[in-house]
Design goal:
elongated, 11-stranded mixed β-sheet
C-alpha cells in the first residue's frame, strides 16, 4: 500500500467503511464535513486516484475481427482450392487450351465469392461487440453536488475523489461509493446493484460487521444507484474501479467468452471433413498415378479431380443455412417473448441443463400481494393477482364476507388511509403509482369493498408522521367530514372504538366533539402502520368483536398473553416468507401542536391486526417449473432477498422441498471454490447473494459439467450473465448493462418464457442435425463418385467445381433451409437435454452419413459406368442424377423413424416448395442454352432423363427401407 495511504493522508478506498463510525471515517479521510476538501487536496487526490471512471480494455479492430473469420479450416481449404484452380486456369490460358466459349477463372471467382460471403456472415454475427462496459460507464457519469472550499458546487462525477463531501437529494443518481455522514429520511433504490426492487432506508449512526452483505450495508451509498426520498451528506470513499460498480466492471472484463456447443461442433465437423478430404485426395492421386503406370501426364487431370473432391466435401452452403436457421429460430422466439441477441444462443438453449433464475420479477410478479390478514382472534387468507382489487377472503378455505367479521373493516380502513400510493387502471391493467407495499394494501382494501379515492375525500389527511428507518412506522391523522351531506362510508363500521388521549370510553367514528380551540364539530383519528413489534409496543388495547353485544366492535386492554400471541402470529407469517406490517389507530379530540413529540403522540394506540404480503409467484411459473423437471432441466433460485422469503417462494413453485438446503451469501463467502462445487448439486436456493457470488455459483455449476442459463436484470448480474452459457436479461426491468452482457432478453420478464425458448432451442438443434444428415450424406456420395472416375479409368472428371458449388449451394441449400423449419417432435420437452459436449456425429449421425454416402455413391457409380458405355451425355446424367436423388433424400430425412407416407406432407409446405423449385432449376441448367455453356451441361434425351429419374428414386427407397428395418428390429427387441 502507498505510504500516503498508510499515514492516513489519503483514505484507503478498499477499507470496509461500513464497519467504521462517522467520526473515524472523517478522521481517516482528512476532510472537514462543514468545509469539504480544498482545491489543493482535490488536485492531489485526482493525481493519486485518477478520474472517477471505469477503465476499459483494448478491443479488436473491425479488420482484425473480419480477418479472424477466415481462420476456419473449411474456408482455408476452399481458399487453397481457389488458388490452385486459378493457377490451372492461368496455365490453360497461356497454353491457349481454354475454349473460347468458356469463362476463365469462373471456378476461382465462384469459390472465393462463397468464402467472402461466409466471412461477411461471420463478421456480422460477431461485430455486435460487447457494449456492457459502455453501458456501465454511462451509469457512472451523472452530475453531482459537492462541498469544496466551504462552497456547494455542481461538478461532473468524473471529478469526484475520495474524501469529497457529496450532497444527495431525491431524484439524483449517486456518483461514487461513500459513507453516510448525515441523512434525513433517506431512501435509495439499489435494484441495479442488488437486484431487489424495494428502496433501502439508509441510516447514519450504525457500525456493521465486516461480513455484512452489500444489500444490508445501510450506512453506505453506491455509485449508479438512485435516491428515491430524503436527503443526505456522504463522505466519498471509493471512485472509479474501486467502487462496487468498478468491481463489477473488473469481473465483466475478466470473464472470457467460451465457444457455444454449435460453434464447437461446427469446428469439429470442419476438422473431420477437411482431414478426410485431404486423405482422400492423396489416396486418389496415388492410386490414379499407380493405375496409369506413374504417367505424370495424367497428373493435371488428377489434380482437377482432387479439386472437385475438395469442393464437394466442403458444404459451402452450410454456414449460410445454419445462420438462416438460427435467424428463423429468433423470429419464432420473439413471438414467444424471447429476443435473441446472439444467434448461436438459439441452438445453445436446447443444451441447457440448469436454469439459475432471479426471484423478483422473473419467478414472481414484481408486485406485492397480500396473502394473509390476522386480527386478534381470526386468521384469514386472501386471494388475487397483482394489484387488481379483486379477490376472496378465505377462512378455513371457505369464502367469507368481510361484513361478517367487523374487526376486519377498521383494518381495511387503515390500509387505505395510511397510504401514499395511488391505484390506477390503465390499458387493461391495474398499476400502482408509489411504493409496491402500499399498492398491495390499497388492493387489499379494494377486495374488501373499501375504495381509497372516495374514502380519502371523506377522511381528509390533516397531518402525518413520515416513515423513517429509526422509527420503522408511519402515522397519518385524518379528519372526518361530518357535514350532513356526507353520510357514513359504505362497508365501514357504524362506529369505530377508540380511546382518546384522556383514556375515555370509545365513541362513534363520527362523534362530534366540541373543543375550545375548535368550536366546530370535528373528529380526528390517527392511523399507524409499520414494524409489528414496534407498533405493538405503542399499543395498550385492541379491537374486540363483542358477540354478546350483537357483533359490535369494542375496545379491550391488551394482555401479556395477547401480546405474545400477536408476536407468534408475526413470527409465523415471517417464517412463511411474508413481509409483515402491523396496524393500529388512536382517536384524537384535537390536532396536536406542530412541536408535539411524535413518540408521545403515538402512545396508547389500539391494535388492529397484521397484514402479510409477498411478491407473489407468477401463476404460469409453476407449470413451467414442472415442464423443466420433465425435460431434465434443474431450476435454481438465486436472489438477494431474505432466506425465509426465498424458501417460501421456491417451495410454492416446486423449485425446492422443505428439506432442501438454503445457502446464504455469508455462508457461500466462507466456502472455497472446490467446496462450493461439491455443494451446488444439493442447493436449489441461494439467498442474500452479492454480485461475485452469482458469478461463483455459475462457475461452480460449470465446473460440475452443467450447462447453465442465468437470468438477471441488474448491473450486479452482468458478470454472471456473461459467464453463463446462456445469459438471459430482463426486457422490462433490466438495465442496459445486463442486456448488453446477455445472449437473450425476456420481453415479458417471465420464467415461463425461458422454458418456451428452450423448447425452440431443442427444435432448432434437432433441425440442424436433420439438415446436416441430409447435406453431408449427399456430399460423401458426391466425393466417392468423383474419386471413382480416375480409378475406373474414365478420361474426364464427371463434375466440375462449378457444378459441385451449384449442388452444395442450391441443391443442398434450398431443401436444407426448408428442413430448418420442420415442426418440433412431440416428445421434444419430455426427454433430458443432450450433452452439450456430445460430438456432432453422436447418436448415429456419423454412421448414417457414412452409410448413406456409400449407398448413394454405389448407385451413382453404377449409373456412371452404364451411362459412359451407352450414352453420349454421361457427365450431365451423373450431375442430374446426383441433384434429383437428393430431393428424394430430403423428403425421406424428415423423420428418423416414421415413414414419409405417414407424415403430413403439408406440415412443412416449404420442403415441398424447395424440392419443386430445385428440380425445375436443375432442368433449366440442362436445357437452357446459355446456362449449358456456363455450367458445362448438355441437353438430355428422354431416355437419358428417364434413366436419371430411375436411379434418383433408389436413395429414397433405401432410406425408407432402413426405417422399416429399424421399426422391425425395435419390435423384436421389445418382444424379447
Amino acid at each position: 500500500m502507498n505510504p500516503l495511504t498508510q499515514s492516513n493522508l489519503l483514505p484507503d478506498p478498499l477499507k470496509a467503511w461500513y464497519t467504521q463510525s462517522v467520526e473515524n471515517s472523517l478522521a481517516e479521510s482528512g476532510c472537514d464535513p462543514q468545509v469539504g476538501l480544498t482545491s489543493q487536496q482535490v488536485s492531489q487526490r485526482l493525481q493519486y486516484y485518477g478520474l472517477n471512471e471505469l477503465e476499459e480494455k483494448a478491443k479488436r479492430s473491425s479488420w482484425a475481427m473480419f480477418l479472424d473469420q477466415f481462420k476456419d479450416i473449411m474456408l482455408l481449404m476452399l481458399i487453397a482450392v481457389a488458388i490452385v484452380s486459378g493457377i490451372l486456369d492461368l496455365i490453360n490460358l497461356q497454353q491457349a487450351s481454354e475454349k473460347a466459349s468458356e469463362f476463365p477463372f469462373k471456378d476461382t471467382i465462384a469459390i472465393l465469392s462463397i468464402v467472402i460471403l461466409n466471412g461477411i456472415l461471420g463478421y456480422l454475427q460477431e461485430s455486435r461487440a460487447e457494449k456492457a462496459l459502455a453501458a456501465l460507464k454511462s451509469m457512472a457519469s451523472p452530475k453531482v453536488r459537492v462541498l469544496r472550499d466551504g462552497r456547494t458546487l455542481e461538478i461532473d462525477s468524473q471529478q469526484l475523489v475520495p474524501g469529497d463531501m457529496m450532497l444527495l437529494e431525491a431524484g439524483v443518481q449517486v456518483g461514487a461509493d461513500g459513507r453516510l455522514i448525515e441523512a434525513s429520511n433517506l431512501q435509495v433504490r439499489e435494484s441495479a446493484l442488488t437486484g431487489e426492487a424495494n428502496a433501502v432506508n439508509k441510516t447514519v449512526e450504525v457500525e456493521l460487521s465486516e461480513d455484512t452483505p452489500i444489500g444490508d450495508r445501510i450506512n453506505l451509498v453506491f455509485q449508479g444507484t438512485e435516491v428515491v426520498q430524503g436527503r443526505g451528506k456522504v463522505l466519498v470513499t471509493g471512485t472509479g474501479m474501486n467502487t462496487e460498480l468498478g468491481k463489477i466492471a473488473q469481473m465483466l472484463q475478466g470473464v472470457e467468452s467460451e465457444p457455444t456447443p454449435l460453434q464447437q461442433r461446427m469446428s469439429q465437423l470442419g476438422t473431420v471433413l477437411v482431414t478426410g478430404s485431404l486423405l482422400l485426395v492423396a489416396l486418389v492421386i496415388i492410386i490414379g498415378l499407380g493405375v496409369s503406370g506413374w504417367d505424370l501426364s495424367v497428373f493435371q487431370q488428377l489434380v482437377e479431380v482432387s479439386l472437385s473432391m475438395a469442393v464437394a466435401v466442403v458444404p459451402e452452403g452450410l454456414p449460410a443455412v445454419v445462420t438462416v436457421t438460427l435467424a428463423l429460430g429468433t423470429q419464432r422466439m420473439v413471438r414467444r417473448h424471447a429476443l435473441i441477441r446472439k444467434l448461436p444462443a438459439v441452438e445453445t438453449l436446447g443444451s441447457v441443463t440448469t436454469i439459475c433464475s432471479d426471484k423478483t420479477g422473473t419467478l414472481t410478479q414484481n408486485k406485492m400481494v397480500v396473502q394473509r390478514v390476522d386480527t386478534l382472534n381470526t386468521s384469514i387468507q386472501v386471494t388475487g393477482n397483482g394489484y387488481e382489487p379483486v379477490g376472496e377472503f378465505l377462512l378455513d378455505n371457505q369464502p367469507i364476507a368481510t361484513e361478517q367479521y367487523p374487526e376486519l373493516e377498521p383494518l381495511l380502513l387503515a390500509c387505505a388511509l395510511c397510504n401514499d400510493a395511488i391505484l390506477q387502471y390503465e390499458q387493461g391493467e391495474w398499476k400502482i403509482l408509489g411504493d409496491p407495499t402500499e399498492g398491495a394494501l390499497i388492493a387489499l382494501a379494494g377486495k374488501g369493498g373499501v375504495d381509497k379515492e372516495p374514502l380519502s375525500q371523506q377522511y381528509s389527511r390533516v397531518d402525518e408522521i413520515p416513515f423513517s428507518s429509526e422509527r420503522k412506522r408511519m402515522s397519518v391523522i385524518c379528519q372526518w367530514d361530518s357535514s350532513p351531506d356526507n353520510c357514513q362510508p359504505a362497508n365501514l363500521p357504524a362506529q369505530l372504538p377508540y380511546s382518546n388521549s384522556k383514556g375515555e370510553q370509545p365513541l362513534p367514528i363520527g362523534h362530534p366533539t366540541r373543543t375550545t380551540e375548535n368550536p366546530e364539530l370535528t373528529s380526528y383519528m390517527m392511523l399507524t402502520k409499520g414494524s409489528p413489534e414496534l407498533v405493538l409496543e405503542h399499543c395498550t388495547s385492541s379491537v374486540h368483536n363483542d358477540d354478546l353485544a350483537g357483533g359490535t366492535l369494542g375496545c379491550q386492554p391488551l394482555t401479556e398473553d395477547q401480546r405474545q400471541q400477536i408476536l407468534e402470529q408475526n413470527n409465523q407469517m415471517a417464517g412463511a416468507g411474508l413481509r409483515v406490517l402491523g396496524f393500529a389507530y388512536k382517536s384524537l379530540d384535537r390536532l396536536s401542536a406542530p412541536e408535539a413529540d411524535h413518540e408521545t403522540l403515538e402512545q396508547g394506540l389500539v391494535w388492529l391486526g397484521l397484514v402479510g404480503m409477498l411478491d407473489a409467484p407468477r401463476p404460469e411459473v409453476r407449470e413451467a417449473v414442472q415442464l423443466c423437471r420433465n425435460a431434465g432441466i434443474r431450476p435454481i433460485m438465486i436472489t438477494g432477498d431474505h432466506k425465509l422469503t426465498a424458501r417460501a417462494i421456491a417451495q410454492d413453485l416446486g423449485i425446492a422441498n422443505q428439506s432442501d438446503q438454503v445457502l446464504t451469501g455469508q455462508e457461500l463467502q466462507k466456502l472455497s471454490q472446490l467446496d462450493l462445487e461439491e455443494q451446488v448439486d444439493q442447493v436449489s436456493i441461494y439467498a442474500r447473494v452479492a454480485p461475485e457470488h452469482k458469478l461463483r455459483i455459475v462457475q461452480a455449476l460449470q465446473g460440475r459439467g452443467k450447462f447453465v442459463a442465468m437470468t438477471g436484470d441488474g448491473v450486479n448480474d452482468a458478470p454472471a450473465l456473461k459467464q453463463a452459457d446462456i445469459g438471459i436479461a430482463m426486457g422490462i426491468t433490466g438495465t442496459d448493462v445486463s442486456k448488453e452482457a446477455s445472449d437473450m432478453v425476456l420481453l415479458d420478464d417471465n420464467f415461463a418464457t425461458i422454458v418456451a425458448a428452450t423448447e425452440e432451442g431443442r427444435t432448432v438443434y434437432d433441425n440442424i442435425r436433420r439438415f446436416i444428415r441430409y447435406i453431408l450424406g449427399s456430399n460423401i456420395g458426391e466425393v466417392l463418385t468423383i474419386a471413382a472416375a480416375p480409378i475406373m479409368g474414365l478420361p474426364d472428371v464427371p463434375l466440375t467445381p462449378l457444378q459441385i458449388l451449384w449442388m452444395n449451394l442450391v441443391t443442398d441449400g434450398l431443401p436444407a433451409l426448408a428442413l430448418a423449419v420442420e415442426p418440433a417432435e412431440p416428445d421434444v420437452m419430455k426427454r433430458s437435454p443432450f450433452s452439450p459436449r456430445e460430438s456432432i456425429f453422436a447418436r448415429g449421425l456419423g454412421s448414417y452419413m457414412v452409410r448413406i454416402g456409400i449407398v448413394f455413391a454405389i448407385f451413382n457409380i453404377t449409373l456412371m459406368a452404364i451411362a459412359y458405355g451407352y450414352f453420349p451425355h454421361w457427365k450431365t446424367m451423373v450431375f442430374t442424377t446426383l441433384c434429383i436423388a437428393q430431393m428424394g433424400h430430403a423428403l425421406a430425412v424428415r423423420s428418423n423413424k416414421r415413414m414419409t407416407l405417414e407424415l403430413n406432407p403439408f406440415s412443412n409446405p416449404y420442403l415441398l416448395l424447395a424440392v419443386t423449385v430445385t428440380t425445375l432449376l436443375q432442368l433449366l441448367l440442362v436445357y437452357v442454352p446459355f446456362l449449358q455453356d456456363f455450367f458445362g451441361t448438355e441437353p438430355l434425351t428422354m431416355m437419358e432423363f428417364a434413366v436419371c429419374l430411375g436411379f434418383s428414386t433408389s436413395l429414397f427407397v433405401w432410406v425408407e427401407l432402413e426405417k422399416l428395418f429399424i421399426r422391425w428390429s425395435s419390435k423384436g427387441k421389445a418382444a424379447d
